[in-house]
Amino acid sequence: MEPEHPLPADLVRDHTIYACVMGSRAFGLATDASDTDRRGVYLAPTPLFWRFDKPPAHVEGPAEEQFSWELERFCELALRANPNVLECLHSPLVEHVSGTGRELLSLRDAFLSRRAHDTFARYAAGQRKKLEADVRLHGAPRWKHAMHLLRLLMSCRDLLRTGELTIDVGDQREPLLAVKRGEVSWPEIDRRMARLTAEADAAATRTALPAEPDRARVEAFLTRNRRASALASS
Fold it and tell me: Which partner from 101, 106, 154, 164 sits 20 to 30 angstroms from 201, CA to CA?
């Protein structure tokens, strides 16, 4: 039987179906000073949803730099093409995966759609405005943020071109780390961002990605696992 009110940390400890490392380590941009950012997905037992107090949609911790989503919330965000969530499904550094987690990973293509162009582009535009504000106020951007924005724009362009989301930067590691070290001027970074944005826009006009994600397939997966959890708890 589940405890009356399980602690959020208990949900992460006992019900995680997928856990991975994200951030610089997953992107191939880690240095000796890099943190280890951990992300995960937990499947809260179905009976917890029958109460007035629902289980949390996400949990920070219990470890440092750890953040987890409840499965339904994770799927909702992935269907909306949330960049941070989509990238979690494609981390090369998987630390834990259950049978349900493997099912989730098998649905990676169901979440991908042309919506990604809009969500990645809107996120990038917001981050670019913050960098421009830094330049106006301080004469320089936050170099680490500039590096990660360039990486995101590359990822978006390549997703639209190939239909696959690859988050490891590969041979772009050193050019991007040069940005982080402040060795590339802001005008040059700005030009690169503009070029990558234009390339992504062009790729979006001929991408093979579907217009919408496969919501029905994802919902069937979620419903099946909610039902199995309810039966297991009875």
Answer: 106
Q: What is the pLDDT of residues 65-124, one digit of tens each?
A: 999 999 999 999 999 999 999 999 999 999 999 999 999 999 999 999 999 999 999 999
Instruction: Identify the H or E element spanning 40.
Output: strand 37-42
d(CA 190, CA 171): 21
Tokens 């169901």 belong to residue: 110
- C-beta of residue 206 within 8 angstroms of C-beta of residue 104: no
Q: pLDDT for 14-23, tens place per residue?
A: 999 999 999 9
DSSP bridge pairs for 70 = 42
Residue type, 83: P
User: Where do runs of H (alpha helix) occur along the chain?
Assistant: 8-15, 24-27, 71-79, 83-88, 99-106, 108-111, 115-138, 143-162, 173-180, 186-204, 215-233
Spatial neighbors of 76 by CB under 8 A, at least 6 apart, are none
Q: Is the entire prediction scored with pTM above 0.85?
A: yes
